[in-house]
Amino acid sequence: MSDVVYLTKEKFVGLEQELREMKIGGRALVAQKIAEARGHGDLSENAEYDAAREEQRHLEYRISKLEETLSKARIIDSKDLPTDKVYILSKVTVKEPKNGKKTQYQLVSPEEADFEQNKISATSPIGKGLMGKKVGDTVEIKVPAGILKYEIVEISR
After folding, report:
1. How many CB atoms lie within 10 A of CB 17?
2. What average pLDDT does this structure show over 1-7?
3. N or C: fewer beta carbons within 10 Å in the chain?
């Protein structure tokens, strides 16, 4: 699979907390549901039992994915990164040449991406298109909806 997963300290701590909650509370809750469903008799036609087992499979899958992510994680601090080019954790202000509209994106790891907060994955089409560029550069980025054209106006942390 992929190598290093770059995370901020806050995201790393959040994922550790989520993992702890799943292992302790989540597993206990699922075990209780399975036990209750077993109490309803014949397991071959017990929809509650099947649902509880499916929930257990999903929980264990999520736990294994979180453990894998955390095992590959490297904590990065934006203060350690230069602002000469767009890197992961850069805040990039771009301007659309045709209408002058400005948008600020922050490039983050896929695990931290949140489009509503303008945090985009460095591995997304826009993220890849901006990575390594400098202020004044114009980029054309192919996205499913067509081609986006941006001028990089500012790079900050």
Report:
1. 10
2. 70
3. N
Question: Which neighbouring-strand residues pair with 92?
Answer: 105, 155
Position with higher pLDDT, 4 vs 86: 86
Domain CATH code at residue 48: 1.10.287.180
As a whole number of angstroms, the distance between CA 55 and CA 58 comes to 5
Same structural domain, 82 and 150: yes
> What sign for the dihedral angle of Cα 31, 37, 42, 45?
negative
Looking at residue 57, its pLDDT comes to: 96
Domain that holds residue 114: 78-156
Global model pTM greater than 0.90? no
Give 156's strand partners: 91
Q: At 156, is the secondary structure helix, strand, or coil? A: strand
Q: How many domains are contained in the chain?
A: 2
Q: Alpha-carbon distance 18 to 74, whole Å? A: 18
Supply φ then ψ for residue 109, to 5 degrees.
-70, 160
* Tokens representing residue 152 in the block: 């990089």
Of 16, 44, 75, the position where a domain reaches its end is 75
Residue at a domain's end among 75, 93, 127: 75
Quick one: CA dihedral 55, 57, 62, 66, positive or negative? positive
In the predicted structure, residue 137 carries a pLDDT above the cut 70: yes
Q: Give the gyration radius of the chain's Cα atoms.
A: 22
